[in-house]
Each structure stands twice: as structure tokens, then as C-alpha cells.
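Here is my example:
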Amino acid sequence: MNFQEFDKFQEKLLAEVVGMRNTKGKEYAIENDRFANFNEDAQINGVDRLICANIFLNKHLRSIRSYIKNKQTYSNESIRGRFVDAIVCLTLIAGLVEETESSLKDKPIDDKSPLRRNASPFPPTLTDKNEGKHQPMEYDPSQSPPLDCTRTDKHSHRD
């Protein structure tokens, strides 16, 4: 697949991801709560809603890993649909994280806070700045140049 073919593929795939808002997104959301599915399951099971979202994501990733290993699916859902579902789930998790971080932004952390007690099932937050050569794939939006899809090197596909 050359660059132009991949660009078209990616645009079409992402359009399918956005289209999910109008199909499955409406089935799982309640009124104006886009995260109702995760919120309700978290409450029923007594866990954090991010854990519920992670379980949903792992379901999609498990089926993708099965396809990678066996080169086939075992249900009537296409592998492409599973990629779309996984991407949708990742965007929902990103939204959950955004909502959580913005709600905690101006709140002090007291000694009874789950954040202070490290009650999370996840490891404690790293204390280093998470920078340097040991982090080659780290994404920092403040360090990213504006998106420019034109290439200027000799391998440009848009000449």
C-alpha cells in the first residue's frame, strides 16, 4: 500500500469510527451521558469506570490478536469492525480520562483520597519526568508541530 492508498484507507476507517456515534453510541449512552455504559457497569461491579472501559477494550483487542494469530474470524463480525470498535473504545477511554482529569484539576488531594492511598489497582504514578531516551514513543502534544500532511523529503508521495 503506498502513501496515498493508506491515506484513503485511514480516512475511510476513521469515518467509520466517527459514524459509530450515531449507531452503537446511541445504544449504549443514556440521555446526555456518553459514558453511561461504563458508569453503570462500574457501579454494579464496584470498580472504577476506567477498569470497565479497559475490559471492553481488551475484548476487542483479544479478537484482533486472535485474527493476527489465526488469520480468520470465528463470528460474523468482520475484522475491520473489530478495529473500528477498538478505536471507538480508545476514544471513549480518552474522554473518560479527560473528564476525570478536568474534574480533579482544582480539587486538593487529602489523606483519605483514593489517589493519596494509592487504592487504584494500577501502579503508582512515576516520579520521574518521563522524558529522555528511555521514552522514544512518548507523545507530548505541546511539543508536536501542527499537522502538515505534505512531505518535503525525496520520498514524498504528494509530489
In short: Residues 115-119 have pLDDT under 50 and may be disordered. The chain has six helices and no strands.
